[in-house]
Specification:
The protein is mostly beta strands and 220 residues long. 5% of the residues lie in helices and 15% in strands. The chain has an 11-stranded mixed beta sheet. The longest helix has 6 residues, at 208-213. The radius of gyration is 19 Å and the shape is elongated.
Length: 220
């Protein structure tokens, strides 16, 4: 049963298959949950929900997303796209300049879309369980980022530009074939957790001691 509370609508786990057309008429909505509904597509009309602050499209069967998502310029709290079959994201998502939390875990991404690194307000980014082999140098644009979750990808290192992320507190690199990490990580002023558990390919560098001396917990 749908749960409604003012401008909030949850259609979680309703086995819908498609989004009911009446949803697109709810232009007052601030939060919309469509998770776990076997959705294979989302219409461009999603962009009409101009007041959305949170959108949950997780746990579906989406292979692509409409560019209309980029029209949701008030989307500020959460965007959940995890547990789908996405190989890319529309370029229009770069317009989500207020978004603070993005979860694109458990998809089939081989590169981190440039649209993501344009989301300058992101505080937490989750890209676990994908197929990333590298991060783009433009990751440096996420200057407000505090948490970067990259577990179970195919990363062997991180770009030097990650040293620009002065607000970064946590980096999760578990289950990646990491062979080298840039020394600039030692200069990140707020880094307090570097998780490298189940990484069997890295010889810990000597500068790890500097990080630990500053209070950063390194899990090996």
């Amino acid at each position: 049963m749908a749960r409604r509370s003012g401008p909030h609508l949850s259609l979680w786990k309703q086995r819908l298959g498609v989004v009911p057309p009446e949803v697109w008429l709810r232009t007052d909505l601030q939060t919309l949950v469509l998770a776990d509904n076997d959705l294979t597509e989302v219409p461009e009309r999603v962009g009409d929900l101009a007041n959305l602050r949170m959108l949950d499209l997780g746990h579906n069967k989406l292979r692509e997303l409409p560019d209309g998502l980029g029209r949701l310029d008030r989307l500020s709290d959460f965007l959940y796209l995890h547990d789908n079959q996405l190989t890319t994201l529309p370029a229009g998502l770069a317009r989500l300049g207020r978004l603070r939390y993005l979860n694109i875990s458990k998809n089939a991404l081989e590169i981190l879309p440039e649209a993501v690194t344009a989301m300058r307000s992101l505080i937490e980014l989750r890209v676990t369980d994908n197929r990333l082999t590298e991060l783009p140098p433009t990751i440096s644009g996420l200057t407000r980022l505090r948490e970067l979750h990259l577990r179970n990808n195919r990363l062997t290192t991180l770009p030097q530009t990650i040293g620009s992320l002065a607000e970064l507190r946590q980096i999760d690199l578990r289950e990646n074939p990491v062979t080298h990490l840039p020394k600039c990580l030692a200069k990140l002023p707020r880094l307090d957790k570097l998780d490298l558990r189940w990484v069997t390919t890295l010889q810990p560098p000597g500068w790890f001691a500097k990080l630990e001396a500053k209070g950063c917990a390194i899990y090996l």
